[in-house]
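Z., the sequence and structure:
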Amino acid sequence: MEHIENLIRKLSKEKISKENFEEIISNSEVVDSEIGLDCLQAYGLPLKEDGDKVYLKTLTTPYKDQTFCFVDIETNGSSPNKHQIIEIGAVKYKNGKEIGRFESLVRCDFIPEYITKITNITTDDLKDASSLRNVLVKFKEFLGDSVFVAHNVNFDFNFISNSLERLGYGKLLNRKLCTIDLAKKTIKADRYGLAYLTDQLKIDSSNHHRALADAVSALRIFEESIKYLPPEIKTTEDLLSFARPNEFKKKKKKKNSQSSCK
């Protein structure tokens, strides 16, 4: 997977030649070089060809025109290798408007009592729900190549990605954004947990710890955060880079160092 991660890092900064793209892919032990670009697109990477160049659409798309998918999951435990998703909620968002919603419970035979206390989801609620496979296939279709956004994104993203891989659908390669990290750069707060921020920002969160309600809360935090972005943040990749911990400070420091050398 290291070759693919290196490829994505490179594509997040610049367009590259098809020759360079194919060379990196051919060195990968994870992705079949004969599938190449089509395979990566199927995994959610927003790749586009332009003549002899390959690039990420997020590199040139203004963040205001980007399709974001705000996601939250409820699970019956914290380990994707031992536990499973019991609910997925998601909201698609573009140009300041919601453009779609996804919500589904997932069939599961066991839910610990403490999970039921947190979510109010019981095994009876799930006995007639769709299978994990069916729900994930529909969710993946809904997600497409949009930017995957969540509060503590690595948990939701990795849990879904690992679940898809176990079922034979491969990992997710969508670009991703964490609303915790973004909020830390734009909103002054004592804490950045979902419940605390929704309370501070006076966001309606009456159904906290249910997937769709929490996905909507993450969207509302995002809407508040982008009000305070620096003016130089223009593209989606600018936004993703800005939100990463310490990333924007490093770039600014490097830019200032270069200026002082002139």
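The chain has 13 helices and eight strands. Residues 63-228 form a domain with the Nucleotidyltransferase; domain 5 fold (CATH 3.30.420.10).

Let me know what you think.
H.
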